[in-house]
Structure formats: C-alpha cells, structure tokens
C-alpha cells in the first residue's frame, strides 16, 4: 500500500458493515488496513492478507515437499517480519 497506507478502497463510499459481514483484504502490509479496522469496529468478521500469503506459501510447500505445512509457524514468521520495528 506504500505510499498510501492510510487509504481504503471504501473511502468516500457510503458503506456500512455489520456482524453479518465478512471482510477480507488481500493487502498484508500493513496487516491491519483501514478497511479491516473500519469493518472490525462495526462488528464484522475480518481476514487479513497474511492469511492469503500464508495459505499460498503452504500450498507451495505441500506441492514441493509432499509434507503438511507448518501453518502456525509460517503465520508467526510472516507476522514477526511485518510487525513494526522499534526505532
């Protein structure tokens, strides 16, 4: 999203969310986009782009190794790498 990390695809639209909604954002950096923050604040269920990123990597891992991918470890590594670093 750089350099527009504060933007949202729903900016300027009159959209509302509720607990009946599921909102998925394919963006994984930042992990918590404004779209997801807005949806979560309204009670909607949200899925971050990290989940897509991890599931794609897991599919490749499975295809190449024929082993069950370590999803929790993969997710932890991605989240740690994307976490804001202290200055």
Write the layout of secondary structure elements.
Blueprint: E1 22-24, H1 34-41, E2 45-47, H2 49-65, H3 71-82
Parallel strand pairs: 1-2
Summed up:
With 87 residues, this protein is mainly alpha-helical. It contains three helices and two strands.
Structural features, described:
With 87 residues, the protein is mainly alpha-helical. The protein has one domain (22-82): 3-Layer(aba) Sandwich (Rossmann fold). The protein has 3 helices and 2 strands. It has helices at 34-41, 49-65, 71-82, and strands spanning 22-24, 45-47. The model has no long low-confidence stretch (mean pLDDT 94).
Which structural category fits the helices and strands?
mainly alpha
Oligomer: single chain
Instruction: Kindly provide the radius of gyration, computed on alpha-carbon positions and rounded to a whole number of angstroms.
Output: 15 Å
H/I helix tally: 3
- Major sheet, described briefly? 2 strands, parallel
CATH topology-level name: Rossmann fold
Span of the ends, CA to CA: 21 Å
Overall pLDDT metric: 94
Query: Which range does the strand content fall in?
Result: 5-15%
CATH architecture: 3-Layer(aba) Sandwich
CATH class type: Alpha Beta
Overall geometry: globular
Low-confidence stretches: none
User: Strand sequence of the main sheet, in spatial order?
Assistant: 1-2
- The arrangement of helices and strands along the chain is EHEHH
**Percent range of helical residues:** 40-55%
CATH homologous superfamily title: NAD(P)-binding Rossmann-like Domain
How many β-strands, per DSSP?
2
User: How many separate domains?
Assistant: 1
């Amino acid at each position: 999203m750089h350099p527009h990390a504060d933007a949202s695809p729903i900016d300027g639209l009159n959209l509302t969310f509720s607990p009946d909604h599921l909102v998925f954002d394919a963006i994984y950096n930042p992990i918590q986009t404004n779209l997801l923050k807005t949806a979560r604040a309204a009670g909607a269920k949200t899925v971050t782009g990290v989940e897509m990123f991890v599931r794609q990597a897991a599919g490749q891992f499975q295809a190449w190794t024929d082993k069950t991918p370590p999803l929790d470890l993969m997710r932890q590594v991605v989240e740690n790498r994307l976490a804001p670093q202290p200055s």
